[in-house]
Input
Amino acid sequence: MNSSNIWILAEKRNDTVHPVSFELLSKGRELAHRLGGKLVAVIFGKSGGDTRRLLEAYGAQQILELQMNRGLSVHPEVLAEAFCTAVRDFHPSIVLAGATAFGRTLMPLIAVRLKTGLTADCTELSIDPERMLLLQTRPAFGGNILATIECPNSKPQMATVRPHVFRMKKAARTRKAELIARVYSPVLGRVTELVESFIEQEKMDITEADIIVSGGRGLGKPEGFALLNRLAEKLGGMTGASRGAVDLGWYSSAFQVGQTGHTVSPKLYIACGISGAVQHVVGMKSAETIIAINEDPDAPIFQVSDYGIVGDLYEVIPALIEEIGDGEKR
Amino acid sequence: MNILVCMKQVPDTQKIKIDPVKNTLVRKGVPSITNPFDESGLECALEIREAVGGKITVLTMGIPDSECILRDALTLGVDRAFLLTDRAFAGADTLATSYTLGMAIRTIGPFDLLVFGKQAVDGDTAQVGPGVASILECPVITFVTGVRTILSDRIVVERMIDSGREVVSSGFPVAITVVKAKKRLRMPRFTAIIESFDTRVVRLGADDIRADSERCGLKGSPTRVKKVFSPKKHTSVQYMEGSAAEQAKSIVSLFREKGIVS
Output
């Protein structure tokens, strides 16, 4: 029998859980309440005391541990098989995961195996009160339109959501979650082999930054990024770059924002010397507050910004750094 | 090395406009292009063929006009081209598309390496590459930034993850989805353009690939588009006036209001 339960895939990152999983649990509480089901955090391997407490704090009523008897596998195909077996055992109504590299790889493998629908990169999720269906809204055509998608005739209804789209909010009351552990041993053919992995130093994942100071061709020279780094550091944020600046070799593509780089939705995005090509804008326009600094008053970036400064960034940014510096001393 | 590159014809998303009255996409007059990520996939395949030899096949699903992108690929010296076109394929979501492409690949294969762009710029789902691999029960490596080594029995690639990079190795067959490479797709040579006129694009319908029509197109698609609408118009920008120092003051007081700085 189908349940009305909502599963959130809790993504492990090193010894902790990826923040997007807590964001999804926060939203999931609201959806579970409307649907009248339980909110379940699903995690590969063991959850551990600290992780369990955190999942409970964000409202998980049940924690489902999917363990593989060969130990925690790194192969997406193995994880997908185990997850599908669990879905067939428990029949959740909805499965949500973060639209991280992990989620965007694993979820399509699961959805196709289960022959069900999957909606990528949702920006809004709600429940249709009459049919009790998950309404999934996402941008398409380079962000030019939004589409609301539903999956009326197959279960589970699956969706991924980018980090920072939903706000992390702890539950008003923390209750102890029921712990269920299942051990699966998926039968599998060939798998890929992870040879090496390079985790860049801490704070390297720009999709997780709350504040991003980003630079484009308008900086005029690579040294401009040193200035942006100083501002980012002052604000406790990270430095990003447009494709133009990355193509010129001024900054690492690991921090590129836009369609061919990362999609970010920080609390604050400061675009410096970025003209605002559509491909850049789709990667940052969901930021809560956008400030643009550009010499060209007609730069399209101003059309998506909340605040604009028409001026020389080499005058404005040092002035900003100085002004903030005073604030810290107070 | 027998390589397949899956491609998609997409509207140039940079040039799309919204009808201000009806609030719908204006597709008329918007040029169609090869999905830029698939161009990176094709360049990757061409480089592999140069290094180890082999054949490249290109495959797309779409309206008859999608043949254009296959013809463009042929001018670069691609060996075979297949166009999946059938009314039964219309309205497919990522599941039905994965199934249809998977059945086609079974028909025209086998292949050692399946190359996909990580996503198409019209839908941006990044689901079809892993989806097809699942239909074919073939391993997949997503978000590949480059090929490190290719041997007769093994490929080693580098992929991008949120917090860094990974080096992944696999035997064949394997599917990879590639991110947009720094290097642009090469330009065709004049003689190759002329030579490509001799190659026919093979059209395939649902029956040719022995596809179950219940699993193709709209029928085979579990998801439904309920509503399409324009994003909320951005409220107009507020400009900061005065000298650089005054502008900076206004911005920082805004930061204080928002609690960004103390």
Notes: Chain B touches chain A through 81 residues (CB under 8 Å). The CA atoms of residues 40 and 181 of chain B lie 6 Å apart. The longest helix of chain B spans residues 36-52.
